[in-house]
Structures are given as structure tokens and as C-alpha cells.
Design goal:
Blueprint (H helix, E strand, L loop, with lengths): L9 H19 L6 H11 L3 H6 L3 E6 L4 H12 L5 E3 L7 H9 L6 E5 L5 H8 L3 E4 L13 H12 L5 E5 L3 H7 L5 E5 L18 E2 L6 E2 L11 E4 L2 E3 L5 E3 L7 H16 L4 H8 L11 E4 L2 E7 L3 H8 L9 E4 L26 E4 L3 H10 L4 E3 L3 H7 L5 E5 L1 H11 L2
Parallel strand pairs: 1-3, 1-4, 2-3, 4-5, 5-6, 6-9, 13-17, 14-15, 14-17, 15-16
Antiparallel strand pairs: 7-8, 9-10, 10-11, 12-13
Helix pairs in contact: 1-2, 2-5, 4-9, 4-10, 6-7, 7-8, 9-10
Length: about 400
């Protein structure tokens, strides 16, 4: 492997070859990219493969409840100004998928890796990252994910004493508490629209005071740190006080926040904010998210929202009424089978939009919309919803497996 004085062992090479073969078979069978099964096969043959593959790379890990796939893509784009990048761009973010991604990066300088929140500590232990970006923590997949404070505690323990530069969102108390165990933290004022998981102090359990954009615990003194980087409107302010314009093709304030964190990461590796932000403009869509597709002679914009915080951000970027909106919710294994989170979403923000409901759990969603006093139609499938929608571009918002179903249907 180039740049690596300790080449892969014969066993590791065999594991990589077997993993790639398994992935190819999976793709040929039409079962997706094959990255997960390929990684599982490779790790079965060499359990230390992830660590071996990371040894010659400057590894950047990105973790959060929301925005990690997009931020991973933005960081990767920015760092290509400084060298070849390998990344798990399609979002396979557990150890098997990460191993598959790194197996294809023998000539890379950087590895920009999205990591599922629950696996961050273990992947950091295996890959010895130079930088870790922590964006946010909120409730997600209630049937299998730990309570958010427990997840923050897991991060805090895993990052204690880490040599990595941690780029962390100063506006999320859970992220600040998790990152504070690390000796080298760069704080970014990236904002926090969803605050319902951060009203109690993660340090002592006291009630958090939240005047304006500030926050602090009146009982133990835990408080918002002073940021070095900040998102201010359409600009990123760097540690020297210089303002750099953000020009993205991706919509919404949340993506500007992702860009601010990405610029801070790029600066760790010597890429100036102006160069980093200019390169981020090239990103038009991320694994189908934000794509506008033609289907049945209509324009559909595909938007992914997996949990209450994500739905809140998505509602803030859709076109105003009377733009039609299609909502699709499933509750399969990859989504989490508990749909009680629907009751945490403020669906009154859709007032005035013609709403059409599809997906495996359309009746669950219909009950929630009924209670929110929204007018809506339940449809059998996407085709029927599109047929009944009034003229104009349609906003389609779906959770994880529902989003994949929609992409397959529209041929995206």
C-alpha cells in the first residue's frame, strides 16, 4: 500500500480480496452496494483489518444524530484540495461498511468516515483518528438506541484522553459534555434548532437555563464554551474574526451549519476556509437527499428526515404553501420499529400545504396529523399521491427505508 511502511499481511490481503468478492456478488444480485456484507466477510477473516487499513491514513470521523452523511461529504470535498480522499460516501457507517470503504483507499491520504453514534468510541479506538467532528445528539430509534445522555456518556468515556482534534458544536449541551473529556477541542457555534433533548444538565441533572443562544446550568456551572468558529447568517467566521461566504447548492440552515463545522475540520489539515467552502459548492445532493427528480411528469424533491430533530429542520427548508407535500414513514429494522417519535414532531408547521401520506405506517402518521388538525389524504402508494397532488413541485419527506423505497420507485 502506498505511503505505508507496514504493508498488509497476507491474511489481511486475503480478507480484502474476499470482502470485495462478496460485495460484487451482492451487487450482482441486486442487493445494494454490497459494502456491509463485504466488510463483514473481510472482518470475519481478519478481525484487526479496520485498524490495519487505517494505519497510513489521516482519519477524520464524523458522528451525530443528524447531518453526518452530508457533513462527511462536505469535508471530503474540502480535503480533496490537499490530497486523495477515501470515504464511506453512501452512509454505511458501522464497522463493516467502514472497513469496506477503507479497503478501497490504498492510494488515499485522508479517510473521511461517517460513524454511527453507538460505534464512535470503538471505531476511534481502531482507527486512531487525527480529527473527530461531533455535530449534535438527539432522540432517534427509540426501540434500540440508548437514551441521549447515555450516548453522550459513552462518547465522553471513549474520547477521554484522545489525541484527536475534536471539532464540536458549542450550541448542543450534550455534545459539549461529551467532548469536554478530550484535551484538544475546537468549538463551533453551529446552532441548535431542536432543543427538547437538552433541557436538563448532562453533568448534574439540573435544569438548563437557555437565554437566547446561550445556555448554562444554574446548579453546577456547566455552560456553553466560547466558540472559535461560528455560523453567522450566510457566513462562516473563523478564529481570526474573518468572515467567509457560504455558497451551497444544498438547502437550509442546517447545511450551512454542516459547512461551518466542515470548514473547521479542513483548517486542521491546512485547507483555508475560502478554498474549503468553494469546494463544498460542488455538492448538489448526498446519496439522493435533496435531489429533484422527474416522476410521472412532475418534479419531486426528495428529503430525508429520520427523527424529530431532522423533521423540524426539513420543515424549515421546504417551499411555502400551497406547495404539495408527500410524507412517507416506515418502521422497519433500519428505521427503528417504535413510531412514538411521531408525537414529538410539530406537524402544525405544515398548515396550508396539501398533504399526502404513504408508507408502511401511513395510518400511524394519519392519526398524528389528525390530532395536529392538518388536512391530508392517505394514499396507497407514491404513484397515487403524485396523481392527486395539485400542480407545482412536490416536496417528498421520508424516513430511512421509506426514502430508499421512494428512490427505487423514481429510478434515482
Amino acid at each position: 500500500m502506498s505511503g505505508n511502511s507496514d504493508p498488509l499481511t497476507p491474511r489481511a490481503k486475503l480478507a480484502v480480496t474476499a470482502g470485495k468478492a462478496a460485495a460484487a456478488v451482492s451487487r450482482a444480485a441486486g442487493r445494494g452496494s454490497g459494502s456491509v456484507i463485504g466488510g463483514r466477510v473481510a472482518l470475519r477473516l481478519d478481525p484487526d483489518l479496520l485498524a490495519r487499513l487505517a494505519t497510513h491514513l489521516d482519519v477524520i470521523l464524523v458522528s451525530a444524530t443528524n447531518g453526518k452523511t452530508t457533513t462527511t461529504r462536505l469535508i471530503a470535498e474540502a480535503l480533496r484540495a490537499a490530497g486523495v480522499v477515501v470515504s464511506n460516501a453512501l452512509g454505511a457507517n458501522m464497522p463493516a461498511g467502514i472497513t469496506s470503504a477503507l479497503a478501497g483507499g490504498s492510494d488515499a491520504k485522508f479517510a473521511v468516515i461517517e460513524v454511527d453514534e453507538k460505534y464512535l468510541a470503538g471505531v476511534a479506538r481502531d482507527t486512531d483518528p487525527k480529527c473527530i467532528a461531533l455535530l449534535n445528539l438527539s432522540r432517534d430509534q427509540l426501540d434500540r438506541a440508548a437514551e441521549t445522555r447515555m450516548l453522550a456518556e459513552h462518547w465522553r468515556e471513549g474520547l477521554a484522553g484522545s489525541k484527536a482534534v475534536v471539532i464540536a458544536n458549542a450550541d448542543d449541551p450534550l455534545v459539549v459534555w461529551a467532548a469536554s473529556s478530550s484535551p484538544n477541542v475546537v468549538w463551533v457555534a453551529a446552532g441548535q434548532m431542536w432543543k427538547d433533548d437538552a433541557w436538563s444538565c448532562p453533568s448534574c441533572g439540573g435544569v438548563m437555563q437557555r437565554p437566547g443562544d446561550d445556555w448554562f446550568c444554574g446548579e453546577c456551572g456547566f455552560r456553553r464554551p466560547t466558540p472559535s468558529w461560528a455560523l453567522s447568517g450566510d457566513y462562516v467566521i473563523d478564529p481570526h474574526g474573518s468572515s467567509w461566504p457560504i455558497h451551497l447548492q444544498l438547502p437550509g440552515r442546517a447545511n450551512k451549519a454542516n459547512a461551518a463545522s466542515s470548514a473547521a475540520v479542513a483548517a486542521v489539515f491546512g485547507v483555508p476556509p475560502q478554498v474549503a467552502l468553494e469546494r463544498m459548492y460542488q455538492v448538489q445532493a448526498v446519496a439522493g437527499r435533496y435531489d429533484v427528480v422527474q416522476f410521472m411528469q412532475r418534479d419531486l424533491r426528495l428529503l430525508l428526515a429520520k427523527n424529530p430533530a431532522g423533521w423540524l429542520e426539513t420543515f424549515s427548508l421546504i417551499d411555502p404553501p400551497p406547495t404539495p407535500v408527500i410524507l412517507s414513514v416506515n418502521a422497519r429494522g433500519a428505521d427503528g420499529t417504535d413510531t412514538s417519535w411521531l408525537w414529538d414532531v410539530d406537524y402544525t408547521r405544515l398548515t396550508g400545504h396539501p398533504i399526502f401520506v404513504v408508507g408502511d405506517r401511513k395510518l400511524d402518521l394519519a392519526v398524528r396529523l389528525e390530532v395536529a388538525n392538518q388536512s391530508f389524504q392517505v394514499c396507497e402508494n407514491l404513484d397515487q399521491a403524485v396523481q392527486q397532488a395539485p400542480p407545482g413541485r412536490i416536496e417528498v419527506i421520508a424516513n430511512y427505508t421509506a426514502f430508499q423505497d421512494l428512490r427505487r420507485r423514481v429510478g434515482n
